[in-house]
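step 4 of 6: structure.
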Amino acid sequence: MKTLPAFIRFNQISKHFGEVKALQYVSLELAEGELMGFIGPDGAGKTTLLRIFTSLMLPDSGSVTLGELDVVTDYKKIRQIVGYMPGRFSLYPDLTVEENLHFYARIFNTSLKQNYHLIRDIYGQIEPFKKRRAGDLSGGMKQKLALSCALIHHPRVLVLDEPTTGVDAVSRMEFWVLLKSMQQQGITILVSTPYMDEAAQCDRVALMDHGKVMVVERPSVIEDNYPGQLFSVKTNQMYRLLAELEAYPEVKHVFRFGEVIHMTFNSSKEEEIVPLIKDYLKQRNHEQISVSRIKPGIEDCFLSMMETPQKA
Amino acid sequence: MWAFIKKEFYHIFRDYRSMVILFGMPVVMVLLFGFAITNDITNAKIGILDRSKDVVTREIIQKLISSGYFLPEVNLESNTRIESYFQQGSIKAVLVFEPDFALKMNENKGATVQIILDASEPNTANILSNYISGIINTFMSQKMKDQMIVPVSIQVQSRMLYNPELKSVYMFVPGIITILLMLVSAMMTSLSIAREKEMGTMEALLVSPLNPFQIIIGKVIPYVFLSLINLIVILLMARFVFLMPLNGSLTLLMAESLLFIIMSLALGILISTISKSQQQAMLLSMFALMLPTILLSGFIFPIENMPLLLQLISHLMPSKWFIIIVKGIMLKGVGLAYFWKETLIIVAMTLFFIGLSVKKFKIRLT
């Protein structure tokens, strides 16, 4: 992947809204045909970055280029080759599924018939409901319709702003399968998501927080580069476990991770740490104690980077 | 482009509430202004205090009643109760004949009749007073003629041109046409553009290759059609419900209205480029368009009577010029030669607003 020439280049992008610095000197490059995920919590600057790329916003400083095109000066050409699916549902709820699709096809100077093959996989799933008003669709179907509309003009680059937010787990999975098939057709995809577990679906991910890109790397590489070793702890007294683990000497990070607690240590004798922790917890009347070393996920990496910011 | 227009029509026809506003409003407004809000006086209730009760006073009272403008509600015996009748609001005026009315009149001493009016409604009081004195004057000159006395006074004969019966509906119809065209065109377009912004669909439109001009035209054309339909409805109602004549050319009226519609649409787009939400667009069009249109266009209050500052402001109201044009065509039956200046002013305003709104239309967010 990395050997391919850069197709999209973000160069030192900054953008602020009043006092809020939405983006600070963001630079990154994408190869053609890549599926890049922008991952970070709300307010990390994902939407702003994607809007600057789609020429909807002007950066305060820095430049974005797509091939030879600059998103500021060549915005008309950019808008023809980029498909954009905004974060909010952006279709007309009072038009039917079919009417929405026809409308978006027409304003991009194409027709549904002409490009039906592009969206057959997706549109096929919602076609039985084509006479239904878009406002009456379920969340997952709305997303599929919005994706169909964004793809109808055969864009070379597809930009999706949090497409899976507010969509059920099954539809989210299906959605990623669809994106992969889009990528197979040679479309470069930029997708933002607040869900860390979706990172693995991307070729590379850019972890973002507070307007900065902390790292741009393949998900597996990010996980392999996790500093130190990660342990998962679980007992029958989860309620007070967090506070007690935080009080443990040598501890580096402790954070709740769903049903369990993930933690890292400053100690170098990491192989001995498991029995030490078990004793420590036994003294404090915990039972059913399980401590095990685990492979870090993207979220662990993200959280550890938030504590010690790295240079992107 | 065509797709855009089609989409806009879908929006309009599927939103039954705005449909009701669009087509119900003209009908309701014309009926309201035509029937309810009227300055004409019919069947005004009056009281009569006749201290003379002779042939002449009876004859005058008879004349008043037969004019159709007045209804004698009470016959008073003394002036003690006048106040309480006015306080109840049951009568609008009291006519007081002095004692020995006929006698004094025949002796050429001059008889007096007093009109006491409820001026808490100044307009009505004024009109009533005029009507009553008019009727009494006619009666007097008639009497003089009968008695072969040549009146020394000068007779004023007025003839009301263009609206001989002084029907206020003649005055209101041009005003309603103006208000409604303004309302439908400006408010509806500004609302529909603001809605796209609110729903986030504007984002999707902006990233499309459509340029601002195409978006604006696509938004505007459906409303031009609707406004024209409204215009026709109002004209038909004026013609067949209120029997208002159309003295001038219908084609010219339509052409001028089209011009005014385009002007209002441009204004609506301008409003929507400034406002962020539908609510804002609504308030802006209400305060920036509707109120000045009603108050400063000469539709209800004559511009000539306003203080100089307001007169100057009224020149900036497109509706003022349009009302002059509509009145010219409908009532006076004159042609373009008589209001080319007004037309030109509206053309200039139209170009100004279109230019400004295309310039202000943002090709990006924020």
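step 5 of 6: annotate
 - The mean pLDDT of chain A is 85.
 - The first helix of chain A runs from residue 46 to 53.
step 6 of 6: archive
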